[in-house]
Automatic annotation (TrEMBL):
Superkingdom of origin: Eukaryota
Segments of this protein annotated with the region Disordered: 320-346, 404-430
Family: Belongs to the 5'(3')-deoxyribonucleotidase family.
Native organism: Pygocentrus nattereri
Upper taxonomic lineage: Eukaryota, Metazoa, Chordata, Craniata, Vertebrata
Protein name (Swiss-Prot/TrEMBL): 5'-nucleotidase domain-containing protein 1
This protein's record includes keyword Metal-binding: yes
InterPro entries (alphabetical): HAD-like_sf, HAD-SF_hydro_IG_5-nucl, HAD_sf
Keywords from the UniProt entry: Acetylation, Hydrolase, Magnesium, Metal-binding
Acetylation recorded as keyword: yes
Amino acid sequence: RAQRGVLLRDCDVIGFDLDHTLCRYDLKETSRLIYESFAQYLVEHKGYDKDLLNLTPTAWDFCATHGTRDLSQEEIIKHYGPKREWKHFNSLNSTFTRSAKYYFYDNYFDLPGALLCARVVDVLNKRGCEVTPDFWKDMVAAIDHNYNTSAFREDSGWYFPRVKRDPGRFLQPCSASVRRWLRGLKENGKILLLITSSHSDYCRLVCDHILGKDFEDVFDVIITNALKPGFFSLIPQQRPFRTLVNDVEDSEGLPGLEKPGWYSQGNWPHLHDLLKKMTGRVEPRVVYFGDSMRSDMFPAFSFGKWETVMIVEEMEGEGVARANPAPSQPAEKKSKFEDQAMKTPSAASQQWGSYFVDVQRDEGGEERLRLTWCSHCIHTYSTMAIPSIEAIADLPLDYKFPRFSPDKPSTTGYYPRPPDTLLKREENQS
Ligand SMILES: *[C@@H]1O[C@H](CO)[C@@H](O)[C@H](O)[C@H]1NC(C)=O
Ligand SMILES: *[C@@H]1O[C@H](CO)[C@@H](O)[C@H](O)[C@H]1NC(C)=O
């Protein structure tokens, strides 16, 4: 792969994930909503302790532990061995697949579920119950109850009904600059794709709200219920594309993609054939924007050989502006909740520290700054990282972005600039 910079001008196709990529969410409101939608289910349908519904604002700082409590050094060694290695790490590290042995929480839709699991462990501990993995099946049932294929249409569960009633509370409309940018890409002959694992009905609600009623004119191809990462990785057992009538998938799969339009499920090779036809190129040049390492970056990079741009909102927790100049959004809406102390999920965690750099002390008490696993993955599987689409929307198409590369400093590839802790690490090293 060429080590040169990336220019959107040189790409034929520009693809986007929807949630947390084109559509920014109010992270405080949605995290709370997702947490509640699962917790309500456990309490009302599975008889769990009502205490799960009460969260202090500081609980949101959480990432992963035994319950919400940190493990002691002895406990870590007891459970993970003297080398402190988690035995499933290698399969996660190289494939990002899910497994019966662990669940990989990797995006803002998932994270509140991790907090809920930890709180369930707290509740079991408090009652003196043995903690076994049995509660996991109830978590899976909670996901199904809230997010299954018909939940949106049937207004069932706790998630969709509330977003439908008050989308402005959870979804942030694209700025005028982002809408202009999308139109500009089209006018410059780019093919625009939307590839989301959300279902068509929810996708329409989100796009109506963030882009306007005519959002379908913006995209050449819209793919919903894409079931990423399988969309990219399931070869040769790929799922066919399906047509949609009134948001219902045709039972019969398509043998291939003939023309642009709105489809469901599908697979990367059939999309690739269509893109070849549309661009008249043997190897269409595709750049793809997404927020998930597991569903977007890793598979689009590894299987699709696409250029990948990762949306990393955590950059905003480390001194990077969301857009330049700062957007004239109404300052933090006053929430109906008393959430003044609730931290934004993208801010650095008190309990865990930076998302990008891990501070460790060696024997002599010297500070050692090491890349976290998350930043290692970002640098390996994405071409570049930005805090939001807005951050690049005012740049000309021939702007040349530096790309991540093993032979360059780890700070290269972040636009408009690297997060604070990575800069600090770079200074320490030189
Ligand atoms: C989806 O979940 C709702 C609420 O639990 C349930 O009534 C409905 O039958 C489920 N639908 C499917 C297709 O699983
Ligand atoms: C796994 O992660 C570590 C960083 O935590 C990295 O050094 C190593 O190369 C990774 N392995 C693969 C296959 O990516």
